[in-house]
Amino acid sequence: MADNNIEVQFAYSNDSLPNLSLMPEAAMFRLWTERTLEHTTSVGSVCLRIVEGDEMRALNNRYRGQDKSTNVLSFPADIGPLPGTPPVLGDIAICGQVVESEASRQNKPPLNHWAHLTVHGVLHLLGYDHQSEDEASVMESLEVEILSRLNIPNPYLGQDNINE
């Protein structure tokens, strides 16, 4: 979708960020975000920031009152669009250390887990949640469907929860 503006920021300095020889890291995150937005027919501006554990812990503490790092946080925008621009959907922070730790613990390819958490974060920006069983079922079904279109297997097989 040409109408989306997807900014990717890297404040995480690990060499294990997703990287394919044909596609740099930022392009992969943009692709995963685009595919999620295409699937839901949403258009907008997203800022995705890949962070270190300390930054994620500070964000989680400030906005959720939890003094620990977590895998992904989404911050839906509450402002309207500027004339001639797509709406601002919001910001997403993904913690590199948590993603890598979870992927290792869950025996998942790190690339698949990075993709899953990107899709998960974008869906939160679009208003999806997993606070109730019904909400979780809808959100997880969307995640599985979007990831399957990216040739990524169901991340929930054998897993109780993606949150650490």
Task: List the defining traits of the structure above.
alpha/beta, 4-stranded mixed β-sheet, Collagenase (Catalytic Domain), 164 residues
Structure, described:
With about 160 residues, the chain is an alpha/beta fold. It has one domain: Metalloproteases ("zincins"), catalytic domain (Collagenase (Catalytic Domain), 3-Layer(aba) Sandwich), CATH 3.40.390. It contains 5 helices and 4 strands. It has helices at about 25-40, 55-65, 95-105, 110-125, 135-150, and strands spanning about 5-10, 45-50, 70-75, 90-95. It has a 4-stranded mixed sheet. Helix 1 (about 25-40) packs across helix 4, helix 3 packs across helix 4 (about 110-125) and helix 4 crosses helix 5. The longest helix has 17 residues, at about 135-150. It is globular and about 45 Å long. About 30% of the residues are buried. The model has no long low-confidence stretch (mean pLDDT about 85).
Tell me briefly what this model is:
The protein is an alpha/beta fold. The chain has helices at 25-39, 53-64, 96-105, 110-125, 133-149, and strands at 5-10, 45-51, 72-76, 88-95.
